[in-house]
Structure formats: C-alpha cells, structure tokens
Amino acid sequence: MKPTCLRRIRGLATLTLGVLAVGGCDDDDDDQPDDARTATEAIRRISQDAPTELPDNVPDSLLQVTLGGTQYNLRELLGNAPESRPSARIVAAYQTVSTPSDPPPLGTSSTEVPPDYTRSAPAAQVYECRQNAGAFAWSFLRPEAGLQPITTQPIPGLDTLVLDHFLYPGGIDYGPPTGTPAAGPSWRVSAPPLAASSPTSGQSLFIGATEASVPNGADNVPLLRVANVARVDQAFPSEVFSATTSDGTRFGYVLRLNTAGGIAPGSGCGGTADVGKRERVPYSAEYYFVEVLTTP
Asked: Number of structural domains, the chain?
C-alpha cells in the first residue's frame, strides 16, 4: 500500500468517524503485495459478514441504553432500516481463543511496548492476590485472549491478521491525531502486512469502560455492556468497528455475551506470603460490537 493512501486513511479514521471503506484506495490495490491485499480483504469481510442480529439470550438490561435522555433497546434499533434514525448495526463479533504467539507491539515506533499477556495460552481472566487492611482477596487484573471473528461466511486470509483482547495500560502515545488514550479493556485488530513503515501502523485498538453487568451463574464471569468504545487508529484501512467513538450522534458499545468460566479462585489468597501471586482462570466469551446512530 502506498504511503499516500496510508496518510489519507489515518486522517479520516478519527476526524470523520465515518465508514472507512477500503475502496478509498482502490487505485493503489494493484501495488499491494499479495499478503497485504489478502489482509485488507479479510478485514473488510469481518465487518461485511458480521451477524446482523444478537443472540436470543441477551438479558434485556444489557440492551437498554440511554442516549440524550432517551432510552433505546439495542435489539429494536438493530431491526430498524439502516438509513433510519435511530438505528444500529453489528459491525463485528468475536469469540475468545488462545492468545497469539507473537503479537505486535503497542504505541508508536518510539514507544513500542508488547501487550501484557501470556503467549500461546488459553483465554483467561487473570487475578492477583492483594491485601486490603487485614483482609486478603483475589482482585481482577486483566483479560488475556485471542479473538476469532464470528461471521456468516468463512473468511480466507485470517492468518494474516492478529486479533487480541487485553488491558490497555494507558500512557502510550498511539500517534496523531488520537493522542494518548486512557487505560481500559481493549480489543485489537492488527494486520502486520499493512505496516508499511512501522510495526505498529497496521492496527486499530478499541478501548471502553464497563457500563452494565449482569450475573451469568456462579461459575461464570458476568455479562457486560462496555460503553463509549473509542477507536485508536494507526492508518488501518477498514470499516471494522467504524465510528465506535461517541460524537453526539454515533455511539459504540461492546457486549460481552455467553460467558463460561473465568471467576476468581476460591482459595490460595490467605496471607501475606500470597500477596502478588497471580492466577490465570480459563474462560470463554463472545464480544459483539454494536454501533448506534441517532440524529443525522
């Protein structure tokens, strides 16, 4: 991909918050190496072939959102015509898999740091033993997972991408025009073949804050709704999660659904000697990224 194309996409990614279609660089497609074209097509298909409906078992309390003083139901908004307002669409969906063996770094070329998770390990919720006054308890530390797209059709070329879920540490400059996002649960789509000049340029990061939680049985981590999911972009040419930053008319949500496992250990954190000990508890979940559009 030519540098001029990368610069154009980088500017649009945050300033317009619109659909970042790969078609904007069609003139350059023939100049891309085969693996870059394959990665670009895989990225496009993740969004194009995403589910159009949420699973039937989503609790109603996760679906009720309030925007501008008005309450909406996400499932009802998904049923509205795409051109109507308000409306919603699922822009991507994923299920957890093992963490990547060789994930790309975060940040810019001058502030590269690796994501903090155990390589090639089953998806897990990580807990740390901590002391609060005289009490000892397991405290949630971070998620560690790879991601597999949930799509209506098989997608070739996924091996050219790296998809992962972790805790973004914050304080890392991700480059203009986005600046430095805050710490939070993060989902990332990386395409190393598209990193023309920097190992961090071919990726998008999505960071949000938990807004609602619903228990899902004693053995499973709760279901969640993560709100105000911000897109942090490094010249990533795709419409995956397009416009998932709130700008007054567009709002991004992530729903954590169908969870299994991942609850804190029931023992092993009982004294000073245990403080600082960490445990990875395997879990599985599905993550649905939903974009809501209100007024034009």
From this structure: 1
Q: Which domain holds residue 67?
A: 3-293
| pTM, full prediction | 0.86
Q: What is the pLDDT of residues 228-250, one digit of tens each?
A: 777 776 655 445 544 455 566 77
SS3 sequence, the chain? CCHHHHHHHHHHHHHCCCCCCHHHHHHHHHHCCHHHHHHHHHHHHHHHCCCCCCCCCCCHHHHEEEECCEEEEHHHHHHCCCCCCCEEEEEEEEEEECCCCCCCCECCCCCCECCCCCCCCCCEEEEEEEEECCEEEEEEEEEEEEEEECCCCCCCCHHHCEEEEEEECCCCCCCCCCCCCCCEEEEEEECHHHCCCCCCCCEEEEEEEEEEEECCCCCECCEEEEEEEEEEEECCCCCCCCCCCCCCCEEEEEEEEEEEEECCCCCCCCCHHHCCCEEEEEEEEEEEEEEEECCC
For 165-180, the pLDDT digits (tens) are: 999 887 777 665 556 6
